[in-house]
Amino acid sequence: MKNNILGGLVIFMVVVTCLLMLDDISNPQEQLSIQDTVEVEQVENNTDLAIVESEE
Length: 56
What we know:
Elements: H1 2-26
Transmembrane segments: 6-22
Keywords: Membrane, Transmembrane, Transmembrane helix
């Protein structure tokens, strides 16, 4: 009985995931545009930065 419940739950989650993927593929106009923005902050005193040294 326990295996049947777990198997059913796995199948249910796979079906829900597939339906969500199909919904995303079928509606491309609703997707948000991704913009990569990077902000660089100038730091005069870099005493709080960590220095990583690699040993070879």
